[in-house]
C-alpha cells in the first residue's frame, strides 16, 4: 500500500471542513467552488484535483462517514445495544458539525436516506419475526420503524444542541431497542 502524501491529506481535510462550515451557514446550492477554496485556503484547482465538482465532494464526504459508521458497527458487534450505541453517539459527538449540518439541511436528504439504509442493514440480523414480541410482524415494517426511531432520535439530539450526553442517549435508545427487539 502506498503512502498518501500528507499535503494531500491536509488539503482534503481542509476542503471537507470548509464545506461543512459553509453548509452550516447557507444552502448547499448557493455554495460555490470558489467559496470552498477561499474558506479552505486552497486554489480552485486543488479542489478539482480531488473532486469532479461540489456534488462529488459532498457524495464522498457522506460515503466516508457511512463507511466509518459501518466499521463502528462491525467493531461493536459483540456489544450490547447500549454499548454499541455509545460507540455511534460518541462518533456523532466528535463529528457534530457534519452530522448536525447534514441532518438539518434540506439539501442533505441523500445523507438521511443513506443513514436510514445503514441502520436498517445493521439491525436486520437482530429482527426475528418467528418468535417473541415480533412474532408474525412484517420484518420490513419493524426495520423501518426502528431505523426511523434511531435516525429521528439522532436528529432530535443534534437539533437541540445535544442536551444529553452521548452516554445517556446510547443507554436510553439502546434500552428501548433491547426492550422491543426481544
TrEMBL record:
It comes from the Bacteria. GO terms for molecular function: DNA binding. Residues 32-51 bind DNA. Transmembrane segments: none annotated. Keywords: DNA-binding, Repressor. The keyword Lyase does not apply. SUPFAM superfamilies: Homeodomain-like. Residues 9-69 form the HTH tetR-type domain. PANTHER family: ACREF/ENVCD OPERON REPRESSOR-RELATED (PTHR43479), TETR-FAMILY TRANSCRIPTIONAL REGULATOR (PTHR43479:SF7). This is TetR/AcrR family transcriptional regulator. It comes from Falsibacillus albus.
